[in-house]
Amino acid sequence: MPANCHVTPQNAKAPAIVEVNTLSEDDQAINPADHYGVTPDYSIQVNGRNTIYSNEYIESKYMYEMNHCDVDHQAKEVKITPRKYQYNFRTKRQVQRTGVMLVGWGGNNGSTVTGAIIANRDKITWMRKEKVIVLWTANTERYTDVRPGLNTTKEEVLQSIADNDDEISPSNIFACAAILENCPYINGSPQNTLVPGIIELAEKHNVFIGGDDFKSGQTKLKSVLADFLVSAGLKLESIVSYNHLGNNDGKNLSAPQQFRSKEISKSNVVDDMVGANHLLYDKKTNEHPDHVVVIKYVPFVKDSKRAMDEYISSIFMNGINTIAIHNTCEDSLLASPLIIDLVILTELMTRITYSTNDNEEYQTFEAVLSILSYLLKAPLVPSGTPVINALFKQHRCITNIFSACAGIAMDTDMLLEHKTKLPKPMKVQL
Ligand SMILES: NC(=O)c1ccc[n+]([C@@H]2O[C@H](COP(=O)([O-])OP(=O)(O)OC[C@H]3O[C@@H](n4cnc5c(N)ncnc54)[C@H](O)[C@@H]3O)[C@@H](O)[C@H]2O)c1
């Protein structure tokens, strides 16, 4: 603990030390946050006491603050207690040579990703790969059954594969093989590949898995628009999403069982936003907007997918507000950048470990990589944890975790420097 630190008596037992002397007069200019002229070849260095650089790691100390909420229904009282938890994040600096194994490589998305990478060929080396990430961009499968004896534990699923059980899908086999080879596995399609037994297998082997279904167009817009409408008090009553497309994916999705997989992954996207707003929607009656998804195969339009959406909301004085959207775009041009981002994010997560105030041993994040939710339609999350679909929350989750890993302040959007008289900056150390 630095000699000039002041520890307040009520915090005497807390592991964190805050409140120190202020910076010199010379150091007090407000950062103009002007990135003009900064190109990707610039290096970034964090100049803070909570961030330590070594040849191998960037280490940061980070105080995670969370509000603990106690509801006493009898007393009609809500008590909020701010709590603090100390984390030490460690990020390996050496980016691993990473190969990606695309299941469905010869298809629309696989070939588009390959084309994009070949365009960058001079900067990419495929030799001596150290880490391989396996990503399913093959066709959508039907849902498999989930039942005891088949795939609810890791032992069951491995035994069912050994028995060549009919309910084991090709993607189940790819996922298990990837996990057993210590390779992260990402499911870019909607089917339920990541059944409980496979999740358990990934947790046991400490291998990252992520899914389901690339969030490329219509669903991405829906997660923004529904969040806006519901949080603005414009009660969403009906969402109807109609698509037609003429590529091989469209043909495959015209089969009822495969369509059902897509329908499920597209349908849950507004659930958390509706569920969180008990002022608009009655929880007791499970009130929620009507939500219908239609997908039709029209060969003539080929890869140029059309998405038409109608959003109807009840507004002030029982008025009705209808928004209609028509979107046309090449399907694989939306999905391929997501594939690259999923691989980059997953590779980075394999280099991050953390310790906490009550466990000094460094460990990895949970095997179910929910940080990928921003890029996926039906985010898979660790059991018992909330599914977040609101797009900007998902985006903030990524930027905040990486800010914490770098030991820098999160962007709170308060901009107090423009709204108050900013005091002298203080040197703060955890
Ligand atoms: N915007 C998008 O393109 C988008 C968005 C979300 C999800 N997806 C999903 O991504 C997947 C791929 O889309 P696409 O347009 O590239 O499809 P595609 O039909 O063009 O390509 C799929 C490829 O997978 C191969 N394949 C099928 N089963 C396989 C298996 N068991 N093992 C290995 N390869 C197999 C096929 O031969 C084909 O080459 C689909 O499931 C689709 O629903 C796409």
Automatic annotation (TrEMBL):
Metabolic or biological pathway: Polyol metabolism; myo-inositol biosynthesis; myo-inositol from D-glucose 6-phosphate: step 1/2
Alphabetically ordered keywords of this record: Inositol biosynthesis
Residue ranges constituting the Myo-inositol-1-phosphate synthase GAPDH-like domain according to the UniProt record? 217-332
Query: What Enzyme Commission number(s) apply to this enzyme?
Result: 5.5.1.4
Per the UniProt entry, what are the Gene Ontology biological process annotations, in alphabetical order? inositol biosynthetic process; phospholipid biosynthetic process
User: Which terms in the Gene Ontology molecular function aspect does this entry carry?
Assistant: inositol-3-phosphate synthase activity
Q: Which residues cross the membrane?
A: none
* Pfam families, alphabetized: Inos-1-P_synth, NAD_binding_5
**What does the UniProt function comment say about this protein?**
Key enzyme in myo-inositol biosynthesis pathway that catalyzes the conversion of glucose 6-phosphate to 1-myo-inositol 1-phosphate in a NAD-dependent manner. Rate-limiting enzyme in the synthesis of all inositol-containing compounds.
Under PANTHER family, the record lists: MYO-INOSITOL-1 PHOSPHATE SYNTHASE
Name of the protein in its database record: inositol-3-phosphate synthase
Q: Which organism is it from?
A: Rotaria socialis
